[in-house]
Amino acid sequence: MTTTNSCRVVTIDLCSSSASGRSGAEGDGTSPETLDGGPDRAHRRPLNVLNVEKNAPAGEAPKKMTAAERQRREVAERKAKRLDMKRRRGDFALEEVTVLVSAEALQHDNQVGLRVCEAIKDHGIRYEVKSDLSSVGAPTVFWRARGEMVPCVAVLLDAVEFMDLCDEAQRTRQPVPDLFLGLERKCEGYAVYCVLIGWERELLYREKKSQSFSPAKYEHKISELAVLTRGLQVHKVSDAREAAEYLGQLSVELARLPYSCSETAAGDFCKKVKTVFGGGRMGCQKRVWINMIHQIPQIGIKTAESISDAFQSFADLMRSYAGAALGTSEKRSLLKGLGGA
């Protein structure tokens, strides 16, 4: 009599909700043929791999989450959602930005640097005083966010200083004062803000002092600088305290810039200045330059755009006319073929 030791093969059906380690014949009638795609496959639930834990041993059913674990997960999800909403509102943005104030600002006669530091501190933003920010010889303010420099710089000038710079540039026949040329070279691609302190007061003083004084001369110069530079943005304030408050608000806007939604007012502000922050001769400067060309009689908008593409600024166009590389006839036909010009 021969005894045969038989080994029963147990087939576990992961696709079935009643898989319990029984064989197909003894359990629910499932056979290996069924697992391979037999006729009963359509009547079974498909395998949901997302419900199988990655670290679970093969053949084990996924562990069900307890009520306490489910509650902890829901609390964590709600907390993460609240933190995300705070970031979108910019509540954490102020902690990520540091305002860098140059030593020249603290040494200025009107104490504008000290007032700027106080205003920035009142807005809840950190600040540092640096002596190696720039060597333009004027009080400047930079910003640093998450360890990187923000492509934006503000220069603080008294109205008297700005007018003296314009007068000196006019005497030397320079279209742009040396201060702004040097700032553009050292901060290439940066948006440049110029805060003029005591502008209206200085205009009134000069008007009373001299009847021949014309405020329009300097107002026109400000408009010219917006074209001849990369879109210099001038903000006029009455005193150092107002200048400090303006820079404090500007710091808040720059800090919240990455988290602003397009539906908010801050998002609208960011859309307006995004092209300027991109640097280069685009954005505000190019729009002003195109409008300036378009004011010339018989120059259409298409022609103005073609000229602005060929010559990035008024200074570039004047250099082409003043250069010795082109003859008189070539200079006369310099704009021919540019959009019908």
From TrEMBL:
Annotated spans, Disordered: 18-72
Nuclease listed as a keyword: yes
InterPro entries assigned: EME1/EME2_C, Mms4/EME1/EME2
Biased composition (Basic and acidic residues): 61-72
UniProt cofactor(s): Mg(2+)
UniProt KW keywords: DNA damage, DNA recombination, DNA repair, Endonuclease, Hydrolase, Magnesium, Meiosis, Metal-binding, Nuclease, Nucleus
Primary site of residence: nucleus
Name of this protein: ERCC4 domain-containing protein
